Amino acid sequence: MRETFIDTTSALLAEDPRTALVLADISAAAFAPAAGEHPDRVLNVGIREQLMVGVAGGLALTGLRPIVHSYAPFLVERAYEQLKLDLDHQGVGAVLVSVGASYDRAAAGRTHLSPADVALIDTLHDWTVHVPGHPGEVPALLRAAVAAEGSAYLRLSVLHNDRPRGGDGALQVVRDAGPGAPLLVAVGPVLDAALAAVADLAVTVAYTHRPRPFDGAGLRALAGTEVILVEPYLAGTSSRVVSAALADRPHRLLALGVGRAELRRYGSPEDHTGWHGLDAAGLRRSVSRFLEPALVPAGG
After folding, report:
1. SS3 state at 26
2. What is the rounded CA–CA span in Å between residue 190 and residue 133?
3. pLDDT in tens, 70-81
4. Residue 11 CB: number of other CB atoms within 10 A?
5. Domain at 2-155, CATH class
6. pLDDT tens for residues 203-260?
């Protein structure tokens, strides 16, 4: 996804003189050719993430459309105050693009982990959040975000599904188990594991790469009594929007994602996926426990 983002952003800088890019050293070498061609619109502020967002806010005030890029914890957590003040409070927008996701760089330690980034963005006003599930989804999402107004956050990861799904972010039914079946909503790169987890269960599976704004109308059209939410970041991040969409209906919600407890381990992204129960086996255990009453045969 990172390479696709670099290629797409470089093309946007060449195509649209309104586009700018602000970096804080991360990916600066990869953008060196673009910086050579557009030195007034590709700015590297060094390892100063708060300044990076402040500069983006200033560029936006001049009418440019800034893309701001770094690792998720540096871009969202470290510079949160600047997102709040230099973008939201000033009434201007930018496109934030992160790498690292929840634990892609687990070998680098806790400084590079950011399972709470989407939850933090959710405290800001009217942001669009995209969590692509495949590199092939990135170009269209980035181009649409740059062409739009307001602020957007694209969360890139080394983890991905086997193929792109595309779409505008409305819930896509990937597996239909029929009316009244439990509904599992998978966000971004957790789709393949979710499909494997319920392969032999009567569970409808829907996919989205856009948790904000969440497709509440699509959820209402698909949901029965049991809803399972699987997200690749902090567990429960989208619980409030799911519950709000179904506020007038009796329902049960299981929210799965990255746990709140700090594991204090290194390992690989795949290791952390398993430790947080987001691999197929872990999801199967959680879903089976949740659905156990519904899975008992009638009269059993």
Report:
1. coil
2. 7
3. 999 999 999 999
4. 15
5. alpha beta
6. 999 999 999 999 999 999 999 999 999 999 999 999 999 999 999 999 999 999 999 9
